[in-house]
Design a protein that fits this description.
The chain is an alpha+beta fold. It has 2 domains: 5-195, no CATH class; 201-434, Aminoglycoside phosphotransferase (APH), C-terminal lobe (Aminoglycoside 3'-phosphotransferase, Chain: A, domain 2), CATH 3.90.1200. It contains 12 helices and 17 strands. The protein has helices at 5-8, 89-100, 156-166, 203-214, 223-244, 253-266, 274-282, 323-326, 333-348, 364-389, 397-418, 424-434, and strands spanning 22-34, 37-46, 51-61, 73-77, 80-84, 104-105, 108-112, 124-126, 134-138, 142-146, 175-183, 186-195, 201-202, 246-250, 288-292, 303-305, 310-312. A 7-stranded antiparallel beta sheet has the order 6-7-11-12-10-9-8, with helices on both faces. Strands 1-2-3-5-4 form a 5-stranded antiparallel beta sheet. Strands 13-16-17 form a 3-stranded antiparallel beta sheet. Strand 6 (104-105) and strand 7 form a beta hairpin. Helix 9 runs antiparallel to helix 10, helix 9 (333-348) crosses helix 11 and helix 11 (397-418) packs antiparallel against helix 12. It binds adenosine-5'-triphosphate and magnesium ion. Keywords: ATP-binding, Carbohydrate metabolism, Glycogen biosynthesis, Glycogen metabolism, Kinase, Nucleotide-binding, Transferase. InterPro entries: Aminoglycoside_PTrfase, Kinase-like_dom_sf, Mak_N_cap. It comes from Mycolicibacterium komossense.
Length: 435
């Protein structure tokens, strides 16, 4: 096959190889899903010796597609034209039909979840969200996500959503199906179908809207939502523990220390705080705690408010960490801390770049207002969590602070490298957490 993937891939926004020099992009797997639809796994190699595998669903046509999305046109191969099938409504509907019949095509297996009714006649449209994958929304009912960068192993997003969905948990987007293949004898997940939450709002947008009003003398209360969010997170944790178990474990001191070293190398402002942070982590060595499967990368951007309730989405765990690490049981305080860190970001974000001077700090009044907002919402979130679970995350104060520190340290390293204007947010938090 001569489709020019080497030219096409770098133009796709989900392409992850931008920082490297691409040497080759060749189809390694080609499975016919339908007479005019192929599933192609493209292997890329880079000048630094690394490689990646991408999923491309190709719709074949006899004429070039001129009225569709120009970015979706891949090119010509032996007199036919290849087009990104996810952008083609009839092909997307055909993919839906494959889920509905739990079809097998070559090495590719589609699985519909038991008891699920798929919207087989709904019209598909590609989601406009800035994503590392590609999602197609069917009417108001379902969202199909095709993973772009493929790796072998168990995908925690499918794994945990399946457990939560089958247990009837109301705080996740119900998993409707998934599809996968194998790669060197290991399972290789390719994508998933989940219930779509129409007219939902992202937690981050709601929280920052509330926080912005703090600085314009407005009055908007997010505490009721924070309380319900705490309840939702607790309910997800309870089902994960119930279905997948919980065991004795420990705070991961070594990985926290390693992350601290990496962050301190990027953020010189962190240096004076390193000994105190290390002491906090080391003090937890050997301290027993309970661990279970958790979300792993929970923040306000991973929760959606529907007209009824809060949903937790994207159980992929922390991006950039190996799949095995992401599936490792951890304390539920990991997720609580992630959410509390997100409250700080939501409160301080409107203050970034506010002043006229480049490095102007927010004034004391603004900082006090932000601090109060954070306290109120932290309290509400923890109250909601405690009410639903019978376990107050604040009761394990030392451990919770350690998880918050671990996250804030990671943020400091990230901000120092990518968004120096934001660095004061985690630094301020680290100082407060240590005090
Ligand atoms: P990222 O690259 O940011 O991790 P992703 O490709 O993994 O993105 P998701 O995070 O699952 O994709 O979803 C992207 C966006 O689509 C979300 O931020 C959310 O706004 C929206 N979304 C995800 N799932 C649903 C759903 N079930 N119902 C409605 N909207 C959803
Ligand atoms: Mg994601």
């Amino acid at each position: 096959m001569t489709l020019p993937f080497i030219e096409w891939l770098p133009k796709q926004r989900w392409y992850a190889g931008r920082s490297k020099k691409l040497i080759s992009a060749r189809p390694a797997v080609d499975v016919t899903l339908h007479e005019d639809i192929d599933l192609i796994l493209v292997d890329t190699t880079y000048a630094d010796g690394s490689s990646e595998r991408y999923q491309v669903l190709v719709k074949w046509t006899s004429e070039p597609v001129t009225d569709g999305n120009p970015i979706a046109a891949i090119g010509e191969d032996a007199g036919r034209f290849g087009y990104d099938a996810l952008h083609d409504p009839s092909a997307a509907r055909h993919l839906m039909a494959l889920f509905d019949s739990s079809a097998t095509r070559g090495q590719v297996v589609f699985t519909k979840e038991p008891g699920v009714q798929l919207p087989v006649d709904a019209s598909p449209r590609v989601s406009g969200a800035e994503q590392s994958n590609t999602s197609v929304i069917f009417g108001q009912a379902a969202m199909f996500k095709a993973f772009r960068r493929i790796s072998a192993g168990i995908n925690p997003d499918i794994e945990l959503n399946r457990v939560l969905g089958r247990a009837g948990n109301p705080n996740v987007a119900r998993l409707m199906g998934s599809y996968s293949t194998t790669w060197d004898g290991r399972p290789c997940p390719l994508g998933m179908m989940a219930a779509f939450a129409p007219n939902s709002a992202e937690g981050w947008d709601m929280a920052t809207a509330s926080a912005r009003e703090l600085y314009s003398e407005g009055d908007s209360d997010f505490c009721g939502e924070s309380y319900r969010l705490g309840q939702a997170v607790a309910s997800v944790h309870a089902v994960l523990a119930d279905q997948l178990g919980s065991t004795a474990g420990e705070f991961p001191v070594d990985s926290a220390l390693a992350r601290l070293a990496v962050a301190a190398a990027s953020a010189p402002d962190l240096a004076p705080l390193v000994p105190a942070i290390e002491a906090r982590f080391n003090a937890l060595a050997g301290e027993p705690t309970t661990v279970q499967r958790v979300h792993g990368d929970l923040h306000l951007g991973q929760v959606l408010r529907t007209s009824e309730t809060w949903l937790l989405i994207d159980f992929e765990g922390e991006p950039g960490t190996p799949l095995e690490d992401r599936r490792r049981p951890d304390s539920t305080l990991r997720d609580v801390a992630g959410m509390l860190r997100s409250y700080e970001y939501a409160a301080y974000q409107p203050l970034i770049g506010q002043g006229s001077g480049k490095n102007e700090e927010p004034d004391d009044k603004q900082l006090a207002a932000a601090g109060e907002w954070i306290d109120r919402n932290t309290t509400a979130f923890c109250d909601g969590y405690a009410a639903a679970s019978g376990r107050d995350p604040r009761a394990a104060h030392v451990l919770l602070v350690a998880y918050e520190l671990d996250k804030a340290v990671y943020e400091a390293g990230y901000e120092a490298r990518h968004r120096p204007a934001w660095l004061p947010i985690p630094l301020r938090s680290i100082a407060r957490l240590l005090s």
